[in-house]
Design a protein that fits this description.
- By secondary structure, the protein is an alpha/beta fold.
- The chain is 25% helix and 19% strand.
- The chain has 7 helices and 14 strands.
- The protein has a 7-stranded mixed sheet with strand order 3-2-1-4-11-6-12, with helices on both faces. It has a 3-stranded mixed sheet with strand order 5-14-13, with no helix packed on it.
- The longest helix is centred in the last third of the chain and has 20 residues, at 260-279.
Length: 286
Amino acid sequence: MKKLGRLILADREDIIERLRDFYLEKGRTEFLAVAYNGETVNSQKFQESERFRLIPYKAFDGQVTIFGDRHRVWIEAAKKFPGIDGWVVHDYDFICRPRDEDIFSHIGPNEYGMVGKAFPMWQDGMRKEGEDFDTYPFPQSQRFWGKFSTAPTDEEVENALLNSYPFDFHGIKTILIGYSDFIAASRENILKLDEPRFATVYGGIERLPHTLWHAKGVSPVDMRQYCKVKVLMDVVYIPMDESYDMLHPVKFWHGISPDLRTRVENAEYGIKTLIKKIIRHRGRKW
């Protein structure tokens, strides 16, 4: 029987013991690796074991943060623990209650699990064909998903993917986008993301894995058909609702309360979301 493991990315020291209890001790996984930010987490406070390991983020170009660069941690874990045949990977604020075995029961050798679907990045000329894409949990209309930003790092990622692994959409050259805070993939498929040509390219977590996997014959499986999922993009946090199998973003677990500043920020996000819903064209929705 293949050995499965859980890889969780965390930059908060106060959540690590809770992760170990919730996922390892509660039987949701048989092996837990927590990738942590060495600038915010003192790993000496935690006792490792054969079933519980800590992995520090590797700095990229002087930056320890993995924002937009999580796939590098996936690759590092796959290399560091060759005995783990498949990984369920997610951020600490993505609650994933199903067991590793249950998740992988829906995933074939040439597939990977995700929340939502991989869809083409918006390009000129896609107005009609792109209107009906399921872009959950991003804004539900392809015309709202063009280039992520004009930042040089984003341009570099997109250009590198377009040059090496373009996705053809009715004759239009583009790349694929998808939600990547949760992924379930075999070790073999994770290592397919380890390409020297992208070693010096920062970011691309919502684009690089989905584009590369498609080019290499690995297809996504939308876990929404098997799990009750709630993922919101325009809030700081949501309650840890017991009625969902997968939930994001849950930054404050039971027993941890947000401060006043965070509560205010969350309320402001809610107001902005409401305004966006009101000004959308009829039929558009988040």
